[in-house]
């Protein structure tokens, strides 16, 4: 069980887990459809304009069955996309309520129903993340009022319930917030560009454990991969570059 060697950093998107979230119709699914050999686990309609491999997921049992088939490995997919993880969580909640024959999570007593749902949700998502495929979870965005020591402010977060959101954001390597960036055009009028934000901010959830990505990237897959791969290539070249031999003056002993 114990390792003999250190693990190597992952160098491809197909080895990573990501949460992609933002407002409706901004292009999240389109972006994910460009991922390498992607399979969509479609928990809601919304892929009608895209030519993708998709499996309709209408309940938690469907998701469990799809995960089992994915784990068998008898396919050519390299990236699994859960679109959306918000609906997947709702299906998990319905599954647990049905299993225990209750109407609502709170019917099992203080905190017990919510704990069962979050444990089941985490079990399945975590298992998916451990499979040898890329995993992308899509979520919508919402504004929430956050209390801090200095007062209250608005923060944009995924629409998952708080505990499920913390489970997901703690699990993934990348948190990519899809947003609109306003710039001033040559005519002085505002020009809106769809972007991805990758670094933490007080105003929204985002993060990049790889350290490869710039803070803002245009919301198109080629731009993302160019930034992601250029940094990886630079790091690999730096590691492979031979270190300079020390000069004579550097190794000479100081005179007494």
Automatic annotation (TrEMBL):
From which domain of life does this come? Bacteria
Decide whether keyword Nucleotide-binding is in the record.
Answer: yes
Q: Give the UniProt keywords, A-Z.
A: ATP-binding, Nucleotide-binding
* Region span, Disordered: 233-256
Pfam hit, one? AAA_24
| Molecular-function GO terms, alphabetical | ATP binding
* Protein name per Swiss-Prot or TrEMBL: ATP-binding protein
């Amino acid at each position: 069980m114990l390792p003999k060697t250190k693990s190597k950093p992952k160098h491809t998107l197909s080895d990573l887990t990501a949460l992609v979230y933002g407002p409706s119709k901004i292009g999240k699914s389109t972006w994910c459809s460009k991922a390498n050999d992607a399979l969509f686990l479609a928990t809601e309609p919304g892929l009608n304009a895209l030519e993708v491999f998709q499996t309709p997921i209408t309940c938690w049992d469907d998701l469990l069955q799809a995960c089992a088939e994915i784990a068998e490995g008898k396919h050519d997919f390299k990236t699994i996309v859960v679109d959306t993880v918000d609906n997947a969580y709702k299906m998990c909640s319905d599954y647990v309520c049905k299993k225990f024959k209750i109407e609502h999570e709170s019917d099992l007593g203080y905190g017990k129903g919510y704990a069962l749902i979050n444990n089941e949700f985490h079990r399945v998502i975590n298992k998916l993340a451990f499979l040898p495929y890329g995993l992308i979870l899509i979520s919508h965005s919402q504004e929430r009022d956050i209390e801090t020591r200095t007062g209250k402010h608005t923060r944009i977060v995924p629409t998952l319930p708080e505990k499920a959101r913390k489970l997901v954001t703690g699990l993934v390597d990348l948190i990519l917030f899809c947003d609109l960036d306003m710039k001033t055009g040559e005519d002085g009028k505002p020009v809106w560009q769809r972007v991805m934000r990758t670094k933490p901010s007080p105003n929204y959830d985002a993060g990049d454990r790889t350290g490869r990505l710039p803070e803002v990237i245009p919301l198109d897959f080629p731009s993302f991969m160019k930034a992601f791969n250029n940094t990886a290539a630079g790091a690999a070249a730096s590691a492979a570059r031979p270190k300079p031999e020390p000069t004579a003056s550097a190794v000479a002993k100081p005179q007494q």
